[in-house]
Amino acid sequence: MMGKVYLIGAGPGAADLITLRGAEILKRAGVVFYDALVHPDTLALAPQARLVAVGKRCSRISTDQRFINRNLVEAAAKYTVVVRLKGGDPMLFGRAQEEIEALAAAGVACEVVPGVTSALAASAEIGVSLTRRGVSRSVTFATPRVGEGEDTSDWAPSVASADTAVLYMAAGQAAEIARVLEGQGMSPATPVIIVESASLPGVRQIGTTLRGLAENTDLQIHGPALLFFGEVYRERARALIAAALLEEEVADELPQRRALPR
Ligand code: SAH
Hints:
The protein contains 9 helices and 10 strands. The protein is of the alpha/beta class.
């Protein structure tokens, strides 16, 4: 028997942001190899399938890519429908190429089912178009992260020259990244928005500027997060900054209020 492997985009997190096509294939899957960022409710779309976690979450223990490739090839000999479920869209920072090539080399049929990439889900949360007319005509999706054994990447110029830029896998080194972008001639006043856990209940937006990002070394981000840069975010960033300041003031006043005699 020779099964087929489907590389399916699970979407950014919320289980109902997978495509109908992806959900239909999950219903027929014999086995599902899934990433760390895939929501349990999405896995519940395949109650009949054997579920195998092959997650990678930045610094945590990750499953070796060659091991995943081998598993996919072997599974295709056992199951008619094999699913490789990836966060967001498989074709963006998802290591799809390695798997597509390994499957092709083994003569296993493979099909990619697109998903909603997290930058698009986060844009929906922000409520600002990536390509707002008259302000932004280009968008860059980039990451400063390079895999083990890869050459260093020159990600910064493309970010600095785009009207709007989105950085994946970058929140952990945000301050350093901001300084690199300032070095590329990007204005310190460039509006920045950070979106954590887009489409999930814990979603959070932080507004700042490139300078603010460079100065803040502790963003307290624990979920997956994206960095957005560009003029399109000027008003939204300002509103988020004002709201955060207000919250701080209220928090500062609270103990005094409590201390007042009744
Ligand atoms: N293929 C995925 C990206 C995988 S790389 C996609 O298309 O979205 C993992 C990175 O994606 C994380 O470090 C983070 O930058 C981003 N990410 C994934 N899910 C996210 C979410 N719900 N909210 C914000 N960022 C997210």
